[in-house]
Design a protein that fits this description.
With 60 residues, this protein is an all-alpha fold. It has helices at 17-28, 30-53. 0% of the residues are buried.
Length: 60
């Protein structure tokens, strides 16, 4: 039976930001999804508010 030795010169790369974010999102579960939807609704509401306030008025 042969035992593999790890190469000491091999560089270990740290996980990317996206992998860490996905791992964190999976770990927190529904909390992060609810925060995402709350943020989405607030931003969408702000866009609608800005669109209605800046709507040009046409003379009759």
């Amino acid at each position: 039976m042969t035992i593999k030795k790890e190469d000491p010169n091999k560089k270990i790369t740290s996980p990317s930001f996206i992998k860490l974010a996905m791992r964190n999102m999976v770990r927190k579960g529904s909390k992060s999804i609810s925060h995402f939807f709350i943020t989405f609704l607030i931003l969408f509401g702000l866009l609608i508010l800005l669109a209605t306030l800046s709507k040009p008025t046409m003379p009759l």
